[in-house]
Amino acid sequence: MSPASGLRPAAVRLAGVHHRYGKTLAVDGIDLEIAEGAAVALVGPDGVGKSTLLGLISGAKRIQQGQVEVLGADLAQRRARDLVQPRVAFMPQGLGRNLYPNLTVAENIAFFARLFGENADAKGARVAPLLEATGLTPFAGRLMRKLSGGMKQKLGLCCALVHDPDLLILDEPTTGVDPLSRRQFWDFVDSIRADRPQLTLLVATSDMEEAARFERVVMVDAGRLLADDTPAELLTATGQPSLERAFISLLPEDRRGDGEGSGPVAPLADDAPIAIESRGLTRRFGDFVAVDHVSFKIRRGEIFGFLGSNGCGKSTTMKMLTGLLPASEGEALLFGVPVDPSDIESRRRVGYMSQAFSLYGELTVRQNLELHARLFSLLEPAAGARIAKLVADFDLADHLDDLSEGLPLGVRQRLSLAVAILHDPELLILDEPTSGVDPVARDNFWDHLQRLSRQEGVTIFVSTHFMGEAERCDRISFMHAGRVIATGAPDALKAAKQSASLEEAFIAYMEMGGREAANDARLPPPQAGHARPSGFSWARLGAYAWREALELRRDPVRLAFALVGTAILMIIFGYGITLDVDKLRFAVLDRDQTAESRAYIDGFAHSTYFVVEAPITSPEDLDRRLKANDIAFAIELPPKFGADLRSGRPTEVLVTIDGAMPFRAETIKGYVQQVHLLFLQQMAEAAGGSLSSAASLEMRYRYNQSFRSIDAMVPAVIALMLIFIPAILTALGVVTEKELGSITNLYVTPVTKLEFLLGKQAPYVAVAVFNFFVMVALALLLFGVPLKGSFLGLLLGAVVYVLATTAIGLVSSTLTNTQVAALFGTAIGTMMPATQFSGLLQPVATLEGGAWVVGTFFPTTYFMRISVGAFTKGLDFSELLPFILATAAFWPALLLLAHLILRKQER
Amino acid sequence: MAPTDVKQEGPGARGMAAPSRPRRSLGQRLAARITNVVNLFKKELISLWRDRALLVLVLYAFTAAIYIQANGMKHDLNRATVGVVDEDNSPLSHAILDGFLPPRFQPPVALKPDEVDKEMDAARYTFVLNVPPNFQQDVLAGRAPSVQLLIDATALMQAGLGATDISAIFQQQVNEYVSRTARETATPVELKIRIAFNQGLESSWFTGTMGLITNITMLSVLLAGAALIREREHGTLEHLLVLPVRPSEIMLAKILANGLVILVGTAFSIIVVLKLVMGMEIAGSVPLFLVGTALYLFFTAALGIFLGTLSGSMPQFGLLFFLTVLPMNMLSGGFTPLESMPQWLQATMQVSPSTQFVAFAQAILYRGAGMETVWPRFLATFVVGMLFFSVALARFRKFLAAQQ
Question: Into how many domains does chain B fold?
């Protein structure tokens, strides 16, 4: 029976919900009703379907089977979903996962306010109190990525609350957050609820202590509901002392773990030698002191815990101990020897597990274990036996052939630990090894650690946010702002502060270390009513454009490349790509050596097209020099050339041209024929006659009388440059959101796909137009290519062209899921068509087959004509218009394609 | 070497002063390094195999992409467009027009005089031939009339070649016509032109090979660099560095694995796509070419890793990639002749192994050059590759520290 239902209407109603990923069934028939104003905790181990359920309720995931009704709207219907979304706020799992790392605190909040259509006045009125209430006011100008984990989560909450939602959904909001921040976070949530009784709160957590704060707890396992009641009732019903034990007792027999924890731990021998020693270890990053003169000694076989707020220097200290990071000052000794990153052998004695999962996701569990066994030079059959033992110890048998990236978090952590101890290290350095792991798995994990420490004498240096884990350490250190505040046995630390629990002691020490207590400012009352979301909103589009532009501005490297890169490439290509064939090297095999033969050769040697090389001595020499590309062609004059010529007997000249580069060979052929003809004419004139033709062909090179390569090439290069860089910039824009997780904002906020796409595109169009002006200036001033035609036409053409080229980037990034693939796809998709099939070297009309098709349906083809037309052909606006229209057609077409591929909901 | 040996009751347990770690001989250490590289190499191959989207793109780059480029874009005069304003309409003018034969020319299209400008502005015709009224009559009367040929000089590659060609066709047709009525004296010196190496001047072989070279460069730089950044973003690189492996071993494994994939793709492309499907005549030794390619791949992969260490994120790498690979490809001599570039640029491009690669690829594949001819280029490629490898190696730890 749902205890809190009463007479209030339901805020969330689920009926028969199923959800599967491939073959795995994540949600297996859940019915649930949550009353308006209720606060419900969803608890259960990793990978039981909690996140999927929240994704479905928030509208981020598409419903596969069953009914999901939120605030009276059926989420299966798009229209209903659009209407209800402004009243729902969703904070996904992971620290600040839906936030933007390169935006400041205030900018992040402003972005979300804009997405929900808050106007400027209302926005100002909302943001300040939110910052005040969360204690973030002093950090308003700090970049999100520089915040600690706890602050990130508070900011996430601010962003979720900025539009006064009626339903607030938080997915594991305090995972990886230190105890003090966690406490502040929940106090803040409580104060919001007190101010706003109609707010419905739905929170997923794997921490049972947190769940006890809620009026209703829903226990989930294997995609089904296990229990649903008030915490007190759950305890009574199961007869267990804590929710954690209650949960375990509700699980099927075989999954309850090994019962009541481990027995008492044997005390550590007093005379154990020192395994780790840190002497005044300091690390600075620029002005920031991450670790500030940290000293401690850890004895062999000891379990030493490191506790502290997020970003206090725990990980940095650990990295210095492993040699990953050089210390700025002080030294670290392992087994009495200073840490030396170049000492490979010492690495065999240390096992390290970093905070984030750092094994190869694309390898299976077995492959990961085998790879590490080999890298540690474990030989068969010892390696096989060792792996078999670890698989049994860490219960990995069921997952042996699964890809590591698909494993539930708890299993992944077990695998990481198995890998870390695979080579029997004497020392284990574990950085938050149990963050995000459910209680049962965590318990087992610590049993392992204790066994290693006491039975095998392994020294363990571990950092954690869980007080329960800290209690199991021999000694712990509290750290804050890079300094160690206190070190000692857990009981001793408690006694020193006269605290009942370690958590209280921790908070007392943190405050002693200079950490400020929470603020308890209140939020202003919510505004009346929610505006109906409009179909298309310039404000939301603007929000994305503004965000994207800020991100670009914050990355000076990217901005510099975007602005200057094109100019550099244009200079290189403007000079480099030329189809003028000249300075051709040739040599002569003169078997005659008479005045006539020398006169013939002079005809070539005096031409500016040719450069004469040392004479050829033999046919073999001729072959060799052609082969080595020393010469492009060779002339052979026969014996008696001069005598035959004088006596009027027919003779012949043999020219051998290197055909390896057909274009060059063809050009040489033409030149040679001309020079030869000239020689004949001169000879005829010398003899008093003339060699006139019956008719002549008068050639007129239009547009570019001097036939200067540069005049045609520079406008063409502009067309090339306006596709590569704008396309690649835009392509990475969308896919980055996919990789980092902020794409969730597209799923759960009122922003439409079109607004999202156009907003993403806008800043890059601006960058590209800027580039266009730079390149036109370069063309006119540096290359001296005159602009003979309409500038207005050229400008308009450039604008519609970059709209099309950036849209290519949009399509490429909606198609792909990783930045590598987007990068690669864009490179392949633009480089060949633009350089080969768009009329740069050969007119599109002369292409065949696939090349012709690509060339015809590629925007560069048309802009190339606009650019060459405006610069060199001197076309006016009306003459350019047909090409401008053709180029313009690509933008809507590509946008439509991207719109079709992009999804407003996750699968 | 078993783990228990290393542990040995823990040397640190007994005395901190003198750690007595087992010293291994040079040979043993070398063997250990080689096994490390081999193991990491296998891991790289598995990783590549799992990224199906990337594999499809790689496959495309070595098959369809080469075929389309080779057959679609010719570097010689091919299907040139000709417009004609024939104001004479005589047997002679018709004979001239009949001389425009495929594949070099598309059939000439008749235009009205007032259409010429518009059509040429729209780049529909590269050449427009204007035969004046009474042309045939004037020829027969010995008045040596002239015919105007308008050439779109912005169509660089075609304009020059086509002009020479049209001029030859024109003279030949006129001469033939005239010689039917008058006697022609034989030219005293005959010019015989022989094309070495690619007798038919078949440009699809050339564009195909150059397309292959472009894709090799693009792929190898991108694969190596992106793999590095991806590993760093996923934290796996840091993880490797706490294992008993050296940065040089990690890098070497990446270079070898990516290199092998591309080398196999290259061999397939040469033997199947270019030789079997397109009938390219390969003058030299394919194995020798592959040896050269392997050296080149050593350079490109080292360059990719170097660029990877320079850039802080994938978007930055993307831009850096375009900025380096585009010029390397387009100025290597595979697109346009190297000789015509400004001296300073030629000198710069000589340093780039892409230029060396294009040069020895042409020498081996078309001219049948052997080791005795191409070894200096092989050496240059290897030296520059070594240089990038060393610089990348030096940057490696710095790069890891910079991500904090």
Answer: 2
Question: Is residue B345 within 8 angstroms of chain A, CB to CB?
Answer: yes
Say if B9 falls within a structural domain. no
Residue of A nearest to B339 (CA): A583
Judge whether B262 and B231 are in contact, CB under 8 Å.
no
Alpha helices in B182-202 (DSSP H): none
Per-residue pLDDT reduced to its tens digit, A662-704: 778 888 888 888 888 888 888 877 776 655 666 777 777 777 6
Query: Rounded to two decimals, what is the model's pTM?
Result: 0.82
Give φ, ψ of B185 to 5 degrees.
Answer: -85, 145
Q: Are the Cβ atoms of A300 and B10 closer than 8 angstroms?
A: yes
What is the spatial distance between Cα A493 and Cα A525, in angstroms, rounded to a whole number? 43
Residue of A579, A608, A677, A854 for testing the chain B interface, max B β-carbons within 10 Å: A579
Residues 6+ apart with CB under 8 A from A386: A373, A378, A422, B3
Distance between CA atoms of B293 and B268, rounded to whole angstroms?
13
What residues make up the domain containing B117? 82-181
Chain B: give the shortest CA distance to residue A334, in Å: 8
Side by side, the strands of the sheet bearing A167-171 are A88-91, A167-171, A200-205, A39-43, A216-221, A224-229
Tell me the mean pLDDT in the region A521-544: 71
Cα–Cα distance measured from residue A352 to residue A372, given in angstroms and rounded to the nearest whole number: 13
- Domain-terminating residue out of B122, B148, B181: B181
B156 interface with A at CB cutoff 8 Å: yes
Report yes or no: B313 at the A interface, CB cutoff 8 Å: yes
> Is the model's pLDDT at A661 over the cut of 50?
yes
Is B68 close to A336, i.e. CB distance below 8 A? no
CATH number reported for the structural domain that contains residue B100 in this entry: 3.40.1710.10
Interface with chain A: mutation pick from B322, B344, B355, highest number of A CBs within 10 Å: B322
Shared domain for B86 and B68, answered yes or no, is: no
C-alpha–C-alpha distance, residues A188 and A129, integer Å: 12
Please indicate if any CB of chain A lies within 8 Å of the CB of B238: yes
CA R_g for chain B: 30
Sheet holding A10-21, edge to edge: A24-35, A10-21, A65-70, A73-74
How far is the CA of B16 from the CAs of A139, A327, A343, in angstroms?
47, 21, 17
Does residue B260 share a domain with residue B334? yes
Determine, for residues B243 and A347 on separate chains, whether the beta-carbon distance falls below 8 Å. yes
Looking only at the bridges linking them, the beta strands covering A696-702 and B146-152 are parallel
Both B60 and B162 in a single domain? no
